[in-house]
Design a protein that fits this description.
The complex is a heterodimer of chains A (about 325) and B (about 350). With about 325 residues, chain A is of the alpha/beta class. Chain A is about 30% helix and about 20% strand. Chain A is built from 13 helices and twelve strands. In chain A, the strands form two sheets. Chain A has an eight-stranded mixed sheet with strand order 6-7-8-3-9-10-12-11, with helices on both faces. With about 350 residues, chain B is α/β, with parallel strands linked by helices.
Chain lengths: ~325, ~350
């Protein structure tokens, strides 16, 4: 897996975000961490792209590099007509306001000393956009994320629950009327009942404000639910891009299949005791300091051959809309 | 007094705080036999972790805490013991695996020290015997090159490997009861499956009893024999895992299951969220604690706290029969009824 390629991009159509050959590397004492190695993605208006992967696969680094927080080591990020990576810092910040980020931990994402009414319109204050009536706009935003303005307007983050804080974060990111919303694990610190509220809210916001979204998460079912397309990442590379409706039954990449097989099911206990399955073997992520040659997934892949070590697989189209970077893609399981 | 390894009777854990008494666990009872796995599920703040720690005896009576009710481990009340006697239970009788494998290992001690320390203290064996057993334990939990790992420090291991070390330490003295408190929450999905597989096979091999505390309903669904659903410090529903998840009778269990996105559903399925938030446990409502968020709420719900009552079952005296604490339970469909009746 873990290959490169641009076959999944759609150059012919209008796109709100294009990320080209994104590379993120961090210098550390022990060498260079290859967090993201050549990620390509694009987003058409109104679309949600899910980025799925385990911790350490580079999905969050990718999201942050797209936001220029910090700027990527190399590669370009085009938001609408602007190439963010080519702009001077001040111009970049202005252009970047069309793209907003929602983070995993909503409580630490908010300044604990400010009130909700100030937090929500902080972006507007910085950019001074329009002469919208401030208080009315705050209330509108709060209502649009399902909060009661009367009760929360004067509160500070510690007086709110995690779910309410995440709603405030979403309201805040919507204040500048962005085109693109990047959500980095927005529901993974929330309880399931609250998670459902936030996922429904993001869907509503997307429809109402005409947003395109990049939704980064590790939970297969959550990503499938909210996305139109899913991009699976492993050790900084793309494994597979496919329509989310096909995720469960048509995934071809061995890593995607491993992720799907790891989703808990009712029959887990019986399967675990089946000696044919080999029991509790250990498989672990290789170090991003020294990623494997060729396909980065080969050290954990049941189908790996010599070719996988020698040659890096490129993304190829297997079916309309489904792109796989693998020399030996598994045929889909027949149900 | 019974064939059960563990018998918890009307356990209540109350924390005395500046804001008033917080009833974290408010009258929970259950029993557990050897070789059996009980899942304890609930959202954060439901009291499931406090319950696990109270069973272990890690939370006991003090100036700030009152624990009442009984925790009987093979007939001995854990909370009636002196602290020193209780400490002797930890290891050979009860052991615990915590959520975060980094903070439950001592960062300045080698992996081997964690294991041999436990072994030498409880089993009074020699240094070389303890090392030999430690290697064996690491091998049992699926760690490659166990002899080399003994000399490593926790920070040199990955999260999944650390959790395996924690499990090996917990198993060192052959406990009868293992309490696993969110053992896989800090781990990646592929590693999570490996760890749950490992725990499951160890329970079978050693005929242990396991209490699996988790917020992850999916993980509990496939790994436990029985399940107990907690909300705001109380049990709202209990019974055999499959029927409870297939046909929940408490509105909270039903709503919780419906709020989880399913892989089998098409994309953009609107989720059935539970509106509102759990009650403040320092000021719990008078009636049913789920009443303010419940779709089936009636008049008596806000006034009278429903008791956990056993649903009549054709199987006489079934210890694992479904029990529900609700004035207006969700009535099972005829098909589901049959399933429950056969107790499978």
């Amino acid at each position: 897996m873990a290959g490169s390629g641009t076959a999944h991009l759609r150059p012919g159509v209008e796109r709100s975000l294009v990320v080209d050959d994104l590379v993120v590397e961090f210098r550390v004492a022990a060498g260079t961490v290859h967090a993201v190695s050549g990620l390509n993605l694009d987003l058409v208006p109104g679309e949600t792209l899910g980025i799925l992967g385990e911790s350490g696969c580079g999905k969050s680094s990718a999201g942050r590099a797209v936001m220029q927080l910090p700027p990527p080591t190399s590669g370009t990020v085009r938001l609408g007509d602007n190439d963010l990576t080519g702009l001077k810092p001040r111009a970049m910040r202005r252009a970047r306001a069309r793209m907003q980020l929602v983070l995993q931990d909503p409580v630490s994402a908010l300044n604990p000393r400010r009130k909700v009414k100030d937090l929500v319109v902080e972006g507007l204050e910085i950019w001074g956009w329009g002469d919208r009536h401030r208080d009315t706009y705050v209330d509108e935003l709060l209502v649009s994320v399902g909060l009661d303005p009367e009760t929360v307007r004067e509160k500070r983050p510690h007086e709110l629950s995690g779910g309410q804080c995440q709603r405030v974060c979403i309201a805040r990111s919507l204040a500048l009327d962005p085109d693109v919303l990047i959500c980095d694990e927005p529901v993974s610190s929330l309880d399931v009942s609250v998670q459902a509220q936030i996922l429904n809210l993001l869907e509503q916001a997307r429809a109402r404000f005409g947003l395109s979204m990049v939704f980064i998460a590790h939970d297969v079912a959550v990503v499938k639910n909210i996305s139109d397309r899913v991009l699976v990442m492993y050790l900084g590379k793309t494994c597979e891009v496919l329509p989310s409706a096909d995720l469960e039954n048509a995934a071809l990449h061995p890593y995607t299949r491993l992720l799907l097989a790891s989703v808990p099911s009712e029959t887990d206990a019986e399967q675990a005791l089946d000696p044919a399955r080999g029991g509790a073997e250990m498989t672990e992520l290789p170090s991003p300091l020294d990623p494997p040659s060729g396909c980065r997934f080969r050290t954990r892949c049941p189908l790996a051959t010599e070719r996988c070590a020698a040659e890096e697989p490129q993304l190829r189209e297997f079916r309309p809309g489904q792109f796989v970077a693998c020399h030996h893609p598994e045929p889909p399981v027949e149900e | 007094m019974s064939t059960h390894l563990l018998e918890v009777v009307d356990l209540r854990t109350v924390f005395h705080t500046a804001r008033g008494d917080v009833r974290a666990v408010d009258g929970v009872s259950f029993s557990l036999a050897a070789g059996e796995t009980l899942g304890l599920v609930g959202e954060s703040g439901s009291g499931k972790s406090v319950l696990g720690r109270s069973v272990m005896g890690l939370i006991s009576n003090s100036a700030m805490t009152t624990v009442s009710g009984q925790v009987l481990l093979e007939g001995t009340d854990v909370h009636a013991l002196k602290p020193s006697a209780r400490r002797r239970l930890w290891g050979p009788e009860i052991a615990m695996v915590f959520q975060d494998p980094m903070t439950s290992l001592n960062p300045v001690k080698r992996v081997g020290t964690h294991l041999t320390e436990t072994l030498r203290r409880h089993l009074r064996c020699s240094r070389s015997e303890a090392t030999e057993r430690a290697v064996d334990l690491l091998r049992q939990v699926g760690i490659p090159e166990p002899a080399r790992r003994l000399a490593q420090y926790p920070h040199e291991l990955s999260g999944g490997m650390r959790q395996r070390v924690v499990i090996a330490t917990a198993l060192a003295c052959d406990p009868r009861l293992l309490i696993a408190d969110e053992p896989t929450t800090a781990l990646d999905v592929t590693v999570q499956k490996q760890i749950l597989d490992l725990l499951g096979s160890l329970v079978v091999e050693r005929d242990m009893a396991m209490l699996l505390v988790s917020h992850d309903l999916g993980a509990v669904a496939g790994r436990t024999d029985r399940v107990q659903v907690m909300y705001a410090g109380r049990t709202v529903e209990s019974g055999r895992t499959r029927p409870v998840f297939a046909a929940p009778e408490h509105p909270y269990t039903e709503a919780l299951l419906a709020s989880i996105p399913q892989l089998s559903h098409p994309p953009h399925t609107v989720l059935r969220a539970i509106e509102g938030n759990p009650p403040d446990m320092a000021r719990p409502p008078l009636g049913c604690r789920f009443a303010s968020r419940c779709s089936r709420v009636g008049e008596e719900c806000t006034a009278v706290l429903p008791a956990l009552s056993v649903v009549p079952s054709p199987v006489a005296a079934d210890a694992a029969a479904r029990a529900v604490a609700c004035h207006h339970p969700v009535l099972p469909e005829p098909v589901a009824m049959e399933e429950v009746g056969h107790g499978r």
